[in-house]
Amino acid sequence: MRQYTIKDIARELGVSPSTVSRALSGHPGISARTRSRVQELARLHNYQPNLLAKSLQQKHSSTIGVIVPEIRHDFFAATISGIEEVAYTAGYAIMVCQSHETLDRETTNIAALLGQRIAGLLLSVSCRTHDARHLAPVLRSRTPLVVFDRVPEGFAGSTVTTDDEQGACDITALLLQKGYRRIAHIGGPPHLAISRRRYAGYTKALAAAGIPQFSGYHIQGGFDEEDGRRGAMQLFDLAQPPDAIMAVTDPVALGVYSAARQRGLRIPQDIAVTGFSGNPVGELITPRLTTVYQPAFEMGRRAAGLLLEQIRGTAAQSTATVSLPTRVVVRESA
């Protein structure tokens, strides 16, 4: 069966192939009506862009590089889906790499992707990435770059994050409303802005309620289940253990569940637990996890959109900061 081409779309719509090509790449000079008609026909006939021909034409790859800490986390899987939707519609493929939460792997991935002459890079840094120095090769090569969710210290480029401080403040306020007073926070690495913002939201809610911060109630660690389990054990061993734990991520909250079971503690009767991210597994565990929902898919879409603006040279400014709203999802764990 012959593959549907740009020329076929142009013939059906009575426009030039160059108009179709610009419409598929989202060129601002093409009207919204024409773009819509072109994209509808492309979907109808399952049009597949010839990425090799495009890359030879443009003297760079039609591939967007994506680096995330770990794909196994539902949050990053959802952001990748959002990225792919936007990239594919614009005629780009994506190449996904995992840093596995290490700076060395992240740096290696960056070098490999630059070697492939990628059109642009989307990055969420590892928990062991302390600053933006390793991004110097990306900046020197003038490769378009957008960092999402986890932003390294000192990065001055385009970013897409969620309102982490407000989300943390809202869920801590929920715990206070429910009568909890000894609220601990198992946070992330202190060198990452995402950790500091969530800790700031936690302390802001406590201060607004006139609740003092108890000594030893702030544990700094990583973003995974083992970090949550280890942090919870530390909190349970205090002379005055907390009555609630606000975890920096849902995986950390799952680690708290594991520690509570190990100690014979009931959730929420003995210890309330909340997470952050809106991982679908929170609906499946018992009791279901109260959490802060992050719009991961939309984050991926917005990050890809900003990157495409840089690639096309249509960005209004060299840097853009997008902060997406969060919302508290109340279930049974608190």
Automatic annotation (TrEMBL):
GO terms of molecular function: DNA-binding transcription factor activity; transcription cis-regulatory region binding
Alphabetized SMART domains for the sequence: HTH_LACI (SM00354)
CDD domains with a match to the protein in the record: HTH_LacI, PBP1_LacI_sugar_binding-like
Protein's organism: Oleidesulfovibrio alaskensis (strain ATCC BAA-1058 / DSM 17464 / G20) (Desulfovibrio alaskensis)
Keyword set, alphabetical order: DNA-binding, Transcription, Transcription regulation
Top-rank taxon: Bacteria
Domain HTH lacI-type, chain residue ranges per copy: 4-58
Gene3D superfamilies: 3.40.50.2300, lambda repressor-like DNA-binding domains
PROSITE patterns: HTH_LACI_2
Pfam families recorded: LacI (PF00356), Peripla_BP_3 (PF13377)
Name under which the protein is recorded: Transcriptional regulator, LacI family
